[in-house]
Every structure is written in structure tokens, then in C-alpha cells.
Target: Cat eye syndrome critical region protein 6-like
Amino acid sequence: MAGLCIKCCRSVKHLPTRLICVLIILLQAAGLDYYLVTYKNLNWAGWAAADIVILLLLLITFYFGYRFHRQQKASGGEDEEDIELHTRAGVVTWFVYAAVLCFKVSYAFKDFSHKLDENDFFGPNTLKTTIALAGIVFLILLTTLHDAKPGSSRRKYIDELTGTVIFDILDCVDSMEILFDEEARRSILPSLDDTIIGIACINFLLPTIPLITLSRTNFGHKKLSQKMVILHKVLLAFIVNLPLLITRMVVWHGMSHGISIFSLKNIIVIGIVSYDLYETHESEGDEPAQGSTANNVPSYGMEDRYNYS
Model:
């Protein structure tokens, strides 16, 4: 009986994650469309067409993933073409999903977020939670794109590149908190609301970069180039966390608005990444003297941090 249960679980092990991913995207799309239709007009229901396109792309990604895992199980090997189709479809799916999400979020926070009532179910908290579901979508979509085992070197490599994405998404949702306050919006600096919305939208799109990186390395099967490692670290520290920290400092000191605990997260990430880049630069610049025994010691470059082969 136990063997039968294990066999059944193995046969459908990829189904629950895919089903949950579809349900979450449907829930998020329905919630955001409801806000747009309620506070704009019925014409905004046309965004459902974009939601259908996202679902179709998601199903295509799942199909390529199913075909890849089935052929891998049958042949015992991995087909390069199937891996590329599978991972590239995932990258395109996330990019389109994030782009549509950016448009919806931009309209919502630009036009009516300050009109939402805290006492209504479909108020600010529900809107923030609905947007934050993007982090769960990324996490589940990522798990469907690879078969790396927990604790394996490939899994560590994947976690290294994508481990902060869900927290960055929650961070940018939290940064838009001030846009729910109508009185605060009247007193903020000119164009600061557009800046906050723009930074949040960039953060929704940026996870495309680590997905592209993972796609190019076949999720840990190939060595990651040094340029891509530096790009990832720079984006993480100075494109994601630094703008969020600056806007929080402006809102805090310039407007006496409450500070978020995520500002500490921004400072920690910027500090760790900056020190890591400095250490790497120093280690690469320290060339051993000629004839020294240190010449026999292999160097440790930044790309080796992500070389799990």
C-alpha cells in the first residue's frame, strides 16, 4: 500500500505546483481587474485578455517542462534543445506577467489607491496582498523550471541567484504604503509618487535577469561567467535596494512619515554586496610574487562563488 502511494505521488509530483501557480495567477488577476473595473470603468475588464495570454504562456511552459521531465526519465539523459525551450519559455512567461502587473499596479496607485477605505474588504490591505502574490508566483514558477535536488550544488546555485527575489517584491510593495494616504500624497515632493511606482515596477521586472542567467547556464549545469555574476550583484544592491532605501529616507526625513523595517534590509544587502565586491577585487588584484610557492595555489575569482560543478 505504501509503495502504491509513493508511486502515485511520483506520477503527479509536478502537478500540484503547476495547479497552485495557475490558481494564484487567476486569483491575482481577478482581484486587480476588480479594482480597475470598480474604480475606473467597465472598459478596464479588457485586461482579462492580457491575463488569458499569460495563462496560455504558463501552460506552454508547463507543457515543455512536462515533455522535458518525461524524456529525461525515459532516456536517462537531458536534451539541450528541450532544456532551452523549457527555460526560455519560463523567462518569457515571467517577463510578460511582470509587464502586465506593472501596468495594472501603475494605474491603481496613480489614480485611486488613495481612495481606498481601510474598512472595506477590497481596501488597501487586500490590494497590497494581491500584488504581493507575485512573489509566490515567481517562487512556484521557478520550482517548475528545474529538477535540482534539495541540498545539491545546483540547488545552492539557484538559491544564490533567486533567494532574495520574493523579499524584494515584498519590499517594493511595502514601499508604496504612503500612496494609500491621501493627505500624505498632497504633501510629498513633486513626482515622488511616480518615482515610487517606477521603482516598484522595475523590481517586478528585474527577476527576469536571474531567470535569463539560469537559462543560459541550464540551471547550474554550466559555469556562470564573471560578468553575469557582477551584473547580478550590482542589480541586487544598487538597482533594487539603493533606490528603495533613498525613497524611504526622503519620506522619513522629508515628510516625517513612518519608517519601514525593510530599510534595514536595504542597508544590510547593500553593505554585504559592496563588501563582497571589494573582497573579490582585492583577491583578484593580489598577484603572487614570481617564483613564490603561492603560484601553485589556485586563484579564487568571483565566478568561482557560483561554480558548483
